[in-house]
Each structure stands twice: as C-alpha cells, then as structure tokens.
C-alpha cells in the first residue's frame, strides 16, 4: 500500500479544517466601521463554510427523519411568509438579524456541514478542538477588557458589553458552547491550547454577566461530567473538580465587578421578560395557525403592550423576538413552524443521546458528550434569548456533528459484499452539487453587498449627528442601492434624520419624511417608520398630516408613550392646547420615568402663561434626567 493513501470515505484534511475554521470565524469576525457590525459579516462566513463543505468528501450524513423535518420546516416557513401581509420582507428578513431565506439557509447549511464532516472523523474533531481553543482565546480578550471598563470595540461606559458578538448574552452563549467542547480534551489530554481555551471560555461566560449563559455552562459541565466520569482516571477526576472550582471562582469574581453584579442581581430584566412572554403568548394564541408572519413581531407586539409594559420597559428598545425560541417559532409561523421546529429539537436530542450510547470507546463517548453539552447549553440560553448569526451557525454545526450518521466504508465488489455495498449511499449527482453551489453563491450575492452597506450606513448616521444633512443623505442612498430589497435601510435613515429633526433641524425633518415614506412604501406596517415620519412632519410644520399618521399608529400601539408625545406636539403646533395637554399627560402616565413628556408639558404651560404648572412640570422633568 502506498504511504499516505487515503482510506475510502475519509475526509481530505485541508478542506475539512477549512470548514471548521470558517464556522468558528462566525463567532469572532466583525465589521470595523459598520453601523451594525455583527450580523451580515458573520452570515457571509457561514455561507463560505457551507460552500467549502460541498467539496469535502463526506464521512457522515443527517438522519433521514431529521432531513424530512428540516425540509418540512423550510416549506412551512415559505408558506407562512406567503400568508403574511408582506411576503417579500418575510422572505428576506428584517433588521437587525435579517433571518430570512438567506440567513436561515446559512444556519441549515451549517447543520448539514457538521453532519457531513464531523461524525467519526478523529482528525476533523481534533482540528475543531484546536480552533475552538483559539477562538475562545480571541473572544476572551475583548471580554476581559470590557469587564475592566474599557470599550475596545466602541460604545459608552454605561453600555452593556458584548465583545465580538455585539451582545452579552450571545457572548456568553458562545463561551458556554466552547467550554463544553474544550472540557474533555483539556481533562483527558491536557493539551495546552485546550486548557488555555477552557479557561478563556469560562472567562468569557463570566464576563458576559448573562444568567442564561451561566446556566447553560453549568448544564454543559454536568452533561460532560456525567457521561465521562467513569472513564476518567483519579487524576483526571481531580482535574475536573479543580477546573469546575476555577470556573465557579471566575463566575464569583465576575460578580464582584459592579456592572456584572448589577446585571445579575437586577430583577427588572426578569420582570420585563415575564411581561414579554405573557404578551407574546397572547399574540401567538390569536394567530395560532400561521402566526403573524416572519419578521413582523416587532410591529405587531405593540398592540399587546399594556400600561405595565409601558411603565416598566418603555419604548426605547422595541423587542423583535420573544426571547424564547418556542415562542419565536410560534409567533413567526404559528403551528406551521412550531410543530416542525419542536420535532427537529426532539429528534436531534434523541439522536444525540443515541450517539453517546452507541459510542465504541470512552474517547468517542467523550467527544459526543462534549457536542451534546454544547448543544444543550445553547438550548438553555435560547430559553431567554433568540437566534442570531453570531451564535446559530456554530450551534447548528455542532448539532450536525452530534446527530450525523457515519457513512459505511465502500467495500470491494464481490458476491459476499454485494448486499453491504447496496447500503452505501452514492455520491449526489454533479448537477445537484452545482445547483446547491449556485444557491449558496446567490445567497452571497445578497449577503456581501448587505455587509458592505453597513459602512455608508454608519457614515450617514455620523454625518446626521454632525448636522451634515446632504452628505448624510448620500451615504444612506449608497446603502439603499446596495440593499434595495431592505425596507429597514430607509427606516434606519429616517430614524437618524428624525433624531436631528426633533432638535429643530428642519432640513433633517424633510429627509426624515422622505426616507420614512420610502420605508413605508416597502413595509407599511413598520411602527418605527411611522414614528419617524411623524417626527419629520412635525419638524416641517405638517402637523395635520402628522396627526393622521399618529392616529393610525396609536390604534396599532395604544400604550406607546412616544406616539402620544409626538401627537401632543402636533396638536399644540396646530393650536389645539387641550388635546396636546391630554396626550402629554397620558405619555407621562404611561412612562413615568421619562423626562420628555414632562418637559413638553412645561413648554406648553409656559407658552400658555400657566407659570405654576410649568414650574411643577419642569421640576418633574429634572427629577427624571
């Protein structure tokens, strides 16, 4: 036999490692100088990983049942999109996660890639551990710096950190997955990179300050330990106990940091999550069969907000997902999407447990346990969070490796091997592979320009803040040309101009009106675009039109304090003092922590000569600043 000859069914080392590296890049890369730096660029790398996996000789495949469920889910997603009021935006996705056909396709492509290259391949898994350790070290650097109060990636001192994921919970979720992957090799082999990566992953989880990530990491350690404990030697068990103690110490040390401790011990986020889940559940119950349509949650949920939500949460950061994956599926597509999604989760878990039970050696069982621990950790995080391009590609890739079934090794032809060789799956036709490659390249044709558009979006936003309206408009126009399918590019432009218009810049108000109308032409139900339009109309003295817009918006979101504030401004500019006072007082009641409604009341009272009331309102405004 020739030296270095490849066994049939083995994976070519370089292409398989390339897929692993590209998948792990999705958790590390970001777009410097972009407006939103953590979405499209990660999707691009996920798509590149899928394309690379097409040309790797497979060692595994997805179970047939899971493939059927995934295909059914994809069909149901398209059907739910077709049934929604705006099928185009449902299919392409909306800001900031853009989870439409391209992004969700990248997630599923990573699932397929994991099943294709990971099952039973010792070399590929070793590469996964090596690069996971490197990724953990890369992630830990900004996490530690942000824990110390620095902001190497930008942001204010009071902003919640997120490192290379842009979100603290996402950062913690990835840290928990990497911790699960690195724990067995760090214990069994004590490989330096695995040990260092394990410490870095634990540090990242601790720095995130995410309760869900802490829970996910703890569950991952329990799963890995429960499966592997009997196969570990005495020294290895002591190493596990020491490592677990070190991880616990890191979490405890993080609690000593005021910002992290405040996040963990703050009950307002828990109360807000309960409110969000309750309202999301009512929304899902009202749209049981097909949901409200993919990507419409952010505009439909405000109709379910009550006075308690307005007082505790407010309108500053409207949620675009229920922060619970089951409700995310139910609200997006009702039973159409929820049933296959639940089926996929249950089947993946069953196949994952079976893969551990059927492992042929303690080392193989440890590998499968690490994959199961990582996947379950991600599932725990999704009980209070949502999928994103920063976390989902890695998670789906690991699910594929966990549930993937090894392909039989080709056997020589002969009478005794004829039956066995009949079970060996044939390589897909070249045409099928080229169609899949074309689909992935077509997805890149959307994802790459969308990524590039983040630069002129950031430039436009900065120029508006500087009062340079004309060049800002040019920047947003360049971004819109790169993303003509996206209704949220003009919406974001309208919001940027509206912020300047609210401070008295009439030229910015004109641009806010123009961009908001453009956004509403593409997506008429966007509440954020309607609000930006109203602000622009008020700034350009079109109060009558503004009131019509706001009346419609208030019917859709009857407890949104900002809408009442803008309608109060429009009414006062029209000379309708009574209506303006009513709306301003209602805005102050809905969101008692905000200073703006009280400042507006102070201005109205002062201009109408009611000095005592103006003074009282001004004091209330000062107390809330």
Short overview:
The protein is mainly alpha-helical. 71% of the residues lie in helices and 1% in strands. The longest helix is centred in the middle third of the chain and has 33 residues.
Descriptive account of the structure:
The structure is a single chain. This protein has 625 residues and is mainly alpha-helical. It folds into 2 domains: 395 residues, no CATH class; 173 residues, Alpha Horseshoe (Serine Threonine Protein Phosphatase 5, Tetratricopeptide repeat). The chain contains 29 helices and 2 strands. It has a two-stranded antiparallel ribbon. Helix 6 crosses helix 7 and helix 7 packs antiparallel against helix 16. The radius of gyration is 27 Å and the shape is globular. The N and C termini lie far apart (79 Å). The N terminus is likely disordered.
**Molecular shape:** globular
Q: How confident is the prediction overall: mean pLDDT?
A: 90
> Roughly how many Å is the radius of gyration?
27 Å
**Record field, number of beta strands:** 2
User: By helix and strand content, what is the structural category?
Assistant: mainly alpha
Number of helices: 29
Low-pLDDT parts are 1-13, 418-425
Please give the domain count.
Answer: 2
The major β-sheet equals:
2 strands, antiparallel
Specify the helix fraction band: over 70%
User: What portion of residues belong to β-strands?
Assistant: under 5%
CA-CA gap between termini: 79 Å
State the strand order across the main sheet. 1-2
Keywords:
625 residues, mainly alpha, two-stranded antiparallel sheet, 2 strands, globular
